Amino acid sequence: MLHNLKAQPADKILALMAAYREDPRDTKVDLGVGVYKDASGNTPVMRAVKEAEKRLQKEQTTKAYVGLAGDPAFSDAMIGLILGDTIPRDRIAAVATPGGTGAIRQALELIKMAAPEATIWLSDPTWPNHPSIIKYLGLKSKTYRYFDKETRGVDYVGMLTDLGAMLPGDIVLLHGCCHNPTGANLTLPQWDGVIKRMQEKTAMPFIDIAYQGFGDGLAEDAAATRKITAAFDTVLIAGSCSKNFGIYRERTGIFMAIGKDAADTPLVQQNLNFLNRQNYSFPPDHGARVVTTILNDPDLRADWEAELEETRNGMLGLRKMLADELRRLTNSDRFDFLADHRGMFSQLGTTPERVEKLRADHGIYMVSDSRMNIAGLNAKTVPILAAAIVAAGI
To answer: Domain 65-296: which CATH class?
Structure first.
């Protein structure tokens, strides 16, 4: 049997990480892997996470299974963080998942059960796991224009034009904030236009919000998701705690399915529980319990929010530093978009050939589509990157 298996495409980011490790140059810079790093190149454990883990270690009396949906207190805490009081709680069915990827997988599994003929519309570009899982599940997809490689901003007109081809019941996958891989984000008035277009076409929104707190702030980054949720009867939301709580390896996420009214919720919840049972039975609990402890304790939450703000402002500072250095080197404003982007990533909008030139000539490692992890920079490496970008003719 096993000899019938086919080789799968190599993961580009993992290959990039391996090449970086083998590069002997002292000036090499890793901007590929999508993990937050501090100025020392480490991914620290947040203070509130450490304290919450200490409390759990002291207070927990069992490691028995929780329910198929995970701890209800986790769902309540995350719904509060992402949606606030936008809609009544009784309209929301939710399950804990293994990370944001698990939430996306469960959402797509639910779509396959409920609307297998629907087309899922993806931004061009989008996070590579989106189309990969969709293809694996045998669902249909199309793309809408999103990133303008000339302005390095959102191609808003192209986006609305492409979404004009949607059919009733189609699904639009949207990045709630900090678009991955581009870093370019819609303004709130532009979100209003997207909502109007989806309503005109009776399409359904599916929101991936993986970076809340990394852009303009916790409430600000949730604004688009809340606006969309208030405007539709049915919404799917995949949330992640990997980035804003820094608990990547704990695989902590949530999937929410919002119905028209409370009468829909029991059936939706039963189906979400069923999907969890089929895919992994009970979801991981440790990370979820850490998050719940933090969000429900005023002191821990205040400390977490303060450290998250430090992280966010640090990335904004690196963006401005890089944009300023490129303005100085080029005597132009064509890289000012880097300071306008939000989140961990920005896309330079250049060719794979120039990205390879950055690697070969300067030891700058980024994904071939020119997505770079801003959090991989520090004060020492910003001038190195800026000089390399100019030398490569980007």
So the answer is: alpha beta
